[in-house]
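ok here's MSMEG_4193 family putative phosphomutase:
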Amino acid sequence: MATVLLLRHGRTTANATGVLAGRTAGVALDRVGRDQADRAADRIAPIPLAALVTSPLERCRQTARAVLARQQGDPEVRVERAITEADYGQWQGRKLADLAEEPLWRTVQANPSAVVFPGGESMQTMQSRAVAAIRRIDAEVEAAHGPSAVWVAVSHGDIVKSVLADALGMHLDLFQRIAVGPASVSVVRYGEHRPEVVATNTDSGDLSWLAAAPAPSGDAAVGGGAGHDEPGTARP
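and the structure:
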C-alpha cells in the first residue's frame, strides 16, 4: 500500500495574529512559517516522492514549493481543490478571540459534526470531501507507482485532523482531540483491511526509512510486531 505524508502548511501571518484566515487570498507564510516549511522539506528530502499534491491556497503552495525544491527526482505535482481550507463563511477573517464568544464556538469544540458555518460549509462536508480526495489520490498513486510509493498532501489543520480522524476510525465529534501543528508531518497508509496511522503531528525526526522500507503487507502483526526493524518495515 502507498504511503501518504499529510503535511500542514507552515505558520502564517494570520496564525501569528490570531485571525481565522480561511480561504482569504494572499495569506502567506511568515518568517517562522518559512523556516518550518524548510525543516519539513529537509525531513522529506531523502524520500523520492511519487507525487506532491497541494491545496490551492498560497500558504500551502509555498510549503509545497519548499518540499519540491529539495527533491532529487521529478514527482508529479498537482493542485487539489478538495483539500483546500474549510469554508468558514462569515467567520473568515475574524479574530479567534472574538469567535470564542460566539455560541457556535462551543459546538465546534464539542460537537463539530453538527456545525454549519454561517454562510459557509458544514464540518461534515469538509471532512467528506477531504477524505474522499486523499483516498482517491492514494489509490491512483499506488496504481501508477506501486505499493512502495510515497506521496505528500499539503493542506490545512482542520483538513489534516479530519483525515486522521477518519483513518483512526474516530467520529468527527472527537477530531478536536487530534493536534496538528504548523508544518507537522503525519503518516498514513491505506491498506486492504484498514488504514494504518504510522505517525501524527511530527515536527522532527528521521523519515528516511520510508524511502527504503519494502511495502508492508497490510496485515497487522499479532502482538504488535517489532516496529521498523521487523521484516517488511526495516530501517536501512
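+1. The longest helix spans residues 123-145.
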